[in-house]
């Protein structure tokens, strides 16, 4: 290898280094020099997270080879823009405008914005947006609006029209913090490029740390493995160990990740997922072996030499293929449809077929078949994990995990390390949106550490990550709904098939969501429904914000619009007539926990009417304008068996330490915990600077549960209140004042108190009956009413979302910037889901851009979020959950708006320009865009419901859970 000695002027100072000019990128060099504020996400020039300024121009440093960089060039990185003690206005604005969530994109954006302001310190919002589009800066968390807000605020300071104080949130003097935009504690490090994400941790590990690369053959979606040949790989330079399932088993592991069966109708009897493939490849992204070597390059070179001989098996890449009668089983122990959940209500409870009669005899009815895609999460940071044995001999895994404790349950016996010797630590994390609920990557790094007994680091390329990590389950659905002559719904039927891909874990949980959220939040008196879930050979299904409910709304919110049209009623008015009102029940025959629907529709009505008028006025043959509405919502908590713990300690300096596992993935686990603690300790007049958070390390923190199911603020909040009350009681003196730390010690009182909250205390919570779908599994709901305004270019079929409005009810807002962040971010994912995102073609969808990530011009600058703020009776300080409702059904507002604009109903997402254009062509030829042929989902709906009625399973109640995969498996979902 030939190196070049070079000088660069970096952040004002001349610095010398050696590099490989052909291989090294500018990002590689900067990061090796310790300037790890330059983040590498995609590594292929499509995300902008590595942006730096080179000789006055913003560039993406990951694709800038050193051979093309002139010596003594001037480079500005995030570290040269401002430091914690000397922040640039752009950094201050980023922190105070809610532009930082996970923060992984922030350094790249800030550098890019700094470059813009050097050229133009008085940009318009549109110029800011065009700048970020040109420089390919992607943010997956914020929805971009807050980022433009931040640039506009900073520009004012740069021009001298405002001071730093003007753009800084001033803490209230009355200690009333709850609801206010208190800046998140992790924001400062993030905007300065000082937050050490997984790859930064890797660079800062001790020199002896070994590097792990995956052998991910990517040669088939389904195949028998005949031979794994590691002989050549073992002779490669720097190789320490090649690990297949055999080496892991020799080291004591079972290689089998633990699973849990949650549903009485699930047929899975053995865990479906191995850490390293043994005798079969089940999906394209399966890993067969690990190469462990002294350097990352050596590990990757060795992994490339691992050869796999296979015998091809039939590949079932969609639900529709996997459920055909002649399809072979993906997993031998279970039929491909491995679980199902019926829903029967009204006459459907007595005899499901009677629902058919009600529909047939109603004044109007519509039917349709719909498909939602395998939506990829597209976090900018991919998979990166470090593993080592700590000084107390804990196998410590630093990773991205939405449930540090639940990851321990998921590891189970697979690594051969006792559960009480596993320590999971959350790294500063470049977002997740659900994929890190799964611990496959944790197990890979853990396996390498267990076999080699050395510290290891695993960092996948973005493409490896994209094929390895799970995705949202695609759905195929058939449905019908009917109404009377007044537009009042009489009955509905639905049949939904969900593709859970190669592995089963979580499948019997996710399939209960469409059984709860189809036709939410309407009053439907008679229902016959069924949700089935099947294994296929595509990527496995996993959590994604609003887990399982977008598939339901894809069906029901299309049918609602179609029925309104058939009945000749405005779609807003049609929904108004059909929303549930106090006393009405949901499709699971229980009352809604709250009834904010009327109030929310009243808030939206004038906005809707204005949008309709504007759309009419602006509509032209070339640019059709339309307005779409959708209702959505989600549950809060994991139901009747949910539990969370937290602890608060009074420190010797009379500050407070809060311990919890409120996992921070960009959604605000840090600020959420801080807001709750401030509010809980309000009697003490505590200020934010007097609370230190110790979070997300299973060795140090109590188990607050998973960051998912819109549960964390609710559950962790309740646990925080209990802990705070105990501490306050101990500190309180007879005269009502509070003891200091010294006084507590002198009085012999404990200074650290634990709080625990369990939903078992909520009256009436019960799972869905597996025979009828009757049940009430959530103590609260969140609600969203969406309005999308679109323009369709009839020449190309391209849809642009011009404006998006959401009226929500997430209870009382805990931190307005964090809640808005979830709203804007969720809405931007909805738009991407509706128009562009997919992971189906493993070649085309292998990177962020190919998979359809929305860039800034794909998302409207005008996103209006209106909080109804009904204080929740059950939640902490009136808050409910706040995240997933925002991504539940926004895609349907977009699809309904396209139909409203140009008469093209897109039944099979995403609504790409080609699909919309094809629909326009059909209409131009005098035709009508028809739904696809009714999907075959395994058997006819009513036959299956009759079978279920005739053969009921025993309903195990809330305790039903079968651990699979060894004694360490526990209730981890
Ligand atoms: Fe360089 Fe994505 S553009 S990391
Ligand atoms: Fe932009 Fe997370 S804050 S990607």
UniProtKB/TrEMBL annotation:
Superkingdom as given in the UniProt entry: Bacteria
Family: Belongs to the xanthine dehydrogenase family.
Occurrences of domain 2Fe-2S ferredoxin-type (ranges): 4-81
Pfam families documented for this protein: Ald_Xan_dh_C (PF01315), Fer2 (PF00111), Fer2_2 (PF01799), MoCoBD_1 (PF02738), MoCoBD_2 (PF20256)
Name of the protein in its database record: Aldehyde oxidoreductase
Alphabetic keyword roster: Iron, Metal-binding, Molybdenum, Oxidoreductase
Molecular-function GO terms, alphabetical: 2 iron, 2 sulfur cluster binding; iron ion binding; oxidoreductase activity
SMART domains attached to this UniProt entry: Ald_Xan_dh_C (SM01008)
InterPro entries referenced in this protein's UniProt entry, alphabetically: 2Fe-2S-bd, 2Fe-2S-bd_dom_sf, 2Fe-2S_ferredoxin-like_sf, 2Fe-2S_ferredoxin-type, 2Fe2S_fd_BS, Ald_Oxase/Xan_DH_a/b, Ald_Oxase/Xan_DH_a/b_sf, Ald_Oxase/xanthine_DH-like
NCBIfam families, per the entry: pterin_aldehy
Transmembrane segments: none
């Amino acid at each position: 290898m030939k190196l070049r000695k070079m000088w660069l002027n970096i952040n004002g100072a001349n610095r010398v280094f050696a590099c490989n000019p052909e291989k090294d990128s500018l990002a590689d060099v900067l990061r090796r020099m310790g300037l790890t504020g330059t983040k590498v996400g995609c590594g292929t020039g499509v995300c902008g997270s590595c942006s730096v300024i080179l000789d006055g121009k913003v560039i993406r440093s990951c694709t800038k080879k050193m051979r093309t960089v002139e010596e003594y060039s001037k480079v500005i990185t995030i570290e040269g823009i401002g430091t914690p003690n000397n922040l640039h206005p752009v950094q201050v604005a980023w922190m105070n405008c809610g532009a930082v969530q996970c923060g992984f994109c922030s350094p790249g954006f800030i550098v890019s914005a700094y470059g813009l302001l050097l050229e133009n310190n008085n940009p318009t919002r549109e110029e800011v947006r065009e700048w970020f589009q040109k420089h390919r800066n992607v943010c997956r968390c914020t929805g971009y609006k807050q980022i433009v807000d931040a640039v506009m605020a900073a520009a004012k300071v740069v021009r001298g029209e405002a001071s730093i104080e003007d753009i800084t949130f001033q803490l209230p003097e009355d200690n009333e913090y709850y609801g206010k935009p208190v800046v998140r504690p992790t924001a400062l490090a993030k905007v300065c490029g000082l937050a050490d994400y997984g790859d930064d941790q890797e660079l800062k590990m001790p020199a002896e740390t070994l590097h792990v690369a995956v052998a991910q053959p990517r040669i088939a979606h389904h195949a028998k493995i005949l031979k794994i040949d590691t002989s050549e790989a073992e002779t490669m330079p720097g190789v320490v160990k090649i690990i297949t399932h055999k080496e892991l088993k020799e080291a004591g592991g079972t290689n089998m990740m633990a699973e849990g069966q949650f549903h009485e109708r699930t047929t899975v009897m053995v865990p479906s997922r191995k850490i390293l493939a043994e005798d079969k490849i089940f999906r394209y992204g399966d890993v067969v072996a690990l190469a462990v070597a002294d350097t990352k390059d050596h590990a990757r070179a060795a992994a490339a030499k691992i050869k796999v001989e296979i015998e091809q098996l039939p590949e079932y890449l969609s639900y529709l293929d996997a459920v055909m009668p002649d399809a072979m089983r993906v997993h031998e122990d279970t039929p491909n449809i491995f679980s199902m959940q019926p829903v029967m209500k009204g006459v459907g409870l007595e005899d499901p077929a009677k629902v058919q009669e009600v529909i047939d005899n109603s004044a109007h009815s519509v039917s349709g078949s719909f498909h939602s895609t395998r939506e990829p999460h597209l976090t900018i940071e991919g998979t990166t994990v470090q593993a080592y044995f700590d000084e107390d001999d804990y196998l410590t895994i630093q990773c991205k995990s939405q449930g540090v404790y639940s990851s321990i349950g998921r590891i189970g016996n697979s690594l051969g390390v006792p559960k009480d010797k596993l320590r999971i630590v959350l790294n500063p994390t470049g977002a997740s949106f659900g994929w890190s609920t799964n611990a496959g990557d944790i197990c890979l790094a853990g396996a390498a550490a267990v076999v080699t007994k050395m510290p290891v680091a695993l960092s996948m390329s973005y493409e490896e990550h994209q094929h390895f990590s799970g995705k949202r389950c695609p759905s195929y659905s058939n449905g019908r709904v009917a109404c009377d002559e007044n537009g009042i719904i009489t009955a509905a039927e639905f049949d939904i098939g969900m593709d859970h891909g190669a592995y089963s874990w979580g499948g019997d949980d996710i399939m209960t969501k469409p059984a709860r959220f189809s036709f939410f939040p309407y009053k439907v008196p008679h229902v016959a429904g069924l949700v089935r879930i099947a294994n296929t050979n595509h990527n496995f299904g996993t959590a994604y914000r609003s887990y399982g409910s977008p598939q339901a709304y894809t069906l029901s919110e299309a049918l609602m619009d179609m029925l309104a049209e058939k009945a000749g009623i405005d779609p807003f008015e049609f929904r108004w007539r059909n929303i549930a009102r106090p006393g009405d029940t949901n499709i699971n025959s229980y009352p809604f926990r709250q009834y904010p629907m009327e109030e929310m529709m009243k808030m939206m009505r004038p906005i809707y009417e204005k949008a309709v008028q504007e759309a009419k006025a602006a509509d032209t043959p070339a640019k059709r304008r339309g307005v779409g509405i959708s209702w959505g919502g989600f549950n809060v908590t994991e139901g009747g068996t949910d539990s969370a713990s937290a602890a608060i300690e009074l420190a010797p300096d009379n500050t407070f330490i809060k311990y919890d596992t409120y996992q921070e993935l960009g959604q605000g686990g840090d600020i959420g915990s801080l807001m709750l603690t401030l509010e809980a300790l309000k009697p003490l007049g505590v200020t934010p600077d007097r609370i230190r958070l110790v979070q997300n390390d299973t060795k140090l923190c109590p188990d607050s549960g998973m960051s998912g199911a819109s549960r964390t603020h609710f559950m962790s909040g309740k646990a925080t209140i209990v802990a705070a009350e105990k501490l306050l009681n101990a500190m309180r003196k007879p005269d009502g004042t509070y003891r200091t730390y010294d006084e507590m010690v002198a009085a012999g009182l404990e200074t650290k108190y634990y709080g625990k909250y369990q939903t078992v205390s909520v009256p009436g919570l019960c799972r869905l009956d597996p025979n009828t779908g009757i049940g009430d599994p959530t103590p609260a709901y969140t609600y969203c009413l969406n309005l999308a305004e679109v323009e369709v270019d009839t020449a190309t079929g391209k849809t642009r979302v011009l404006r998006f409005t959401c009226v929500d009810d997430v209870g009382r807002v805990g931190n307005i910037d964090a809640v808005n962040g979830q709203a804007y971010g969720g809405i931007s994912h909805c738009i991407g889901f509706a128009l562009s995102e997919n992971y189906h073609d493993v070649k085309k969808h292998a990177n962020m851009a190919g998979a359809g990530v929305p860039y800034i011009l794909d998302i409207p600058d005008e996103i209006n979020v209106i909080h109804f703020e009904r204080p929740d009776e059950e939640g902490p300080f009136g808050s409910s959950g706040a995240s997933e409702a925002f991504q539940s059904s926004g895609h349907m507002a977009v699809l309904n708006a396209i139909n409203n604009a140009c008469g093209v109903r897109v039944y099979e997402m995403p609504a790409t320009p080609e699909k919309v254009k094809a629909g326009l062509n059909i209409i131009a030829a005098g035709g009508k865009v028809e739904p696809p042929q009714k999907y075959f989902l395994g058997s006819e709906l009513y036959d299956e419901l009759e079978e279920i009625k005739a053969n009921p399973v025993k309903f195990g109640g809330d305790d039903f859970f079968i651990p699979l995969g060894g004694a360490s498996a526990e209730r981890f979902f």
